[in-house]
Structures are given as C-alpha cells and as structure tokens.
TrEMBL record:
Domain of life: Bacteria
Record's keyword terms, sorted: Signal
Xref: InterPro entries: Beta-barrel_OMP, OMP/PagP_B-barrel
Pfam families in the cross-refs: OMP_b-brl
Signal as UniProt keyword: yes
Secretion signal span: 1-19
Gene3D superfamilies linked: 2.40.160.20
Full protein name: Outer membrane beta-barrel protein
SUPFAM superfamilies: OMPA-like
Species this chain originates from: Flavobacterium polysaccharolyticum
Residues in Outer membrane protein beta-barrel domain copies: 9-155
Length: 167
C-alpha cells in the first residue's frame, strides 16, 4: 500500500513540475464553468491572453436564468453578460510554485436583462458595471487546470468555479 501511495504522489508531482503558470506572453487560455448569484446559476466561457510577464487581458460571456413566484405572480429572469478584464498575476511577487496561479484584477461588463412576469410581454434592460475579481488556478499539467474566482460587479457576481485549458 505504501508503494502505491508513493507512486501516486510521485506521478502527481512529476505531472505538476511541467505546469506553467501564469499565462505566458502571447499565449491564450480558455476558461469555462459555473457560478453563483442571487438570480440563478450562471454559466460562463472566457478567453485570456498573456500580454506581459504578469498581466493578462480577457473577455467573458455568461448567461443565467431564474424564475420565482412572488405575490401570486411568476417571474422569469435572464441575464446575458459580456465582459472584458485585465488581471495581474502574483506568482513571481509571492514566489508561488509554477503549477499555481494567483491573480486579481478589474473588469468592465455589459449586461442584458430580460424580465417576464407572464402577465406582460416582458421587458429588456441593459447596464454597464465595473467589477473586481480575485482568483486562483491549479494546473495538473502544462495545459489543463481548475479555477476558482470570487468578485463583484460582474455578471457572475459571487463566485465561480471551472476549468482552464491553455493553447
């Protein structure tokens, strides 16, 4: 049993040695997952692009829907979010191992809200928001990892978890 445990730890460590984080200059990564919010569970997909040794810029598309009954009326909501972000990656400053990526940044987001209370045809509204985020990733190898992020002022305000794939 000890040999199997040692082999598993060795293999996991060997895979982790080849991970490269944060995103290198000129590389692209795809992020996708789910989030939390007061208006349903958002799903998101986004891209990040390495623009320097510690900076990335990116974009994100998210969608969520929610329905509820209030005072005898059913309400349906949906929110589509389009966002752009810039993040600073703290790996070098904090001397973090390369399989980890710790970042924080700002985002500019555009939302399209759709409301329908089933008594009317529904309404549509939009809004722009400035958001902040802080998050981290763990890479299992040089291309694939998991991510978790928290923040506010964006279409997935609260938290989100997902996967990351580097190209």
């Amino acid at each position: 049993m000890k040999k199997i445990l040692f082999l598993a730890v060795f293999c996991f460590s060997a895979i982790s040695v080849f991970a490269q984080a944060p995103l290198e200059n000129g590389r692209v990564q795809l992020n996708a997952g789910i989030g939390t919010s007061g208006w349903g569970t958002p799903v998101y997909v986004g891209l990040d692009y390495g623009v320097g040794s510690n900076f990335t810029i990116g974009g994100e598309l998210s969608y969520r829907t929610h329905n509820e009954r209030y005072a005898g009326t059913y309400y349906d909501y949906s929110v589509t979010g389009l966002g752009a972000n810039v993040n600073y990656h703290f790996n070098k400053v904090l001397n973090i191992p390369s399989q980890w990526d710790f970042y924080g940044g700002l985002g500019l987001n555009y939302y399209i809200f759709n409301y329908d209370d089933r008594n009317y045809n529904g309404t549509e509204d939009s809004d722009i928001g400035l958001g902040v985020q802080i998050g981290g990733r763990y890479f299992f190898n040089k291309n694939f990892g998991i991510n978790i992020e928290g923040g506010g002022g964006n279409a997935t305000s609260g938290a989100k978890i997902g996967i990351t794939y580097k190209f």
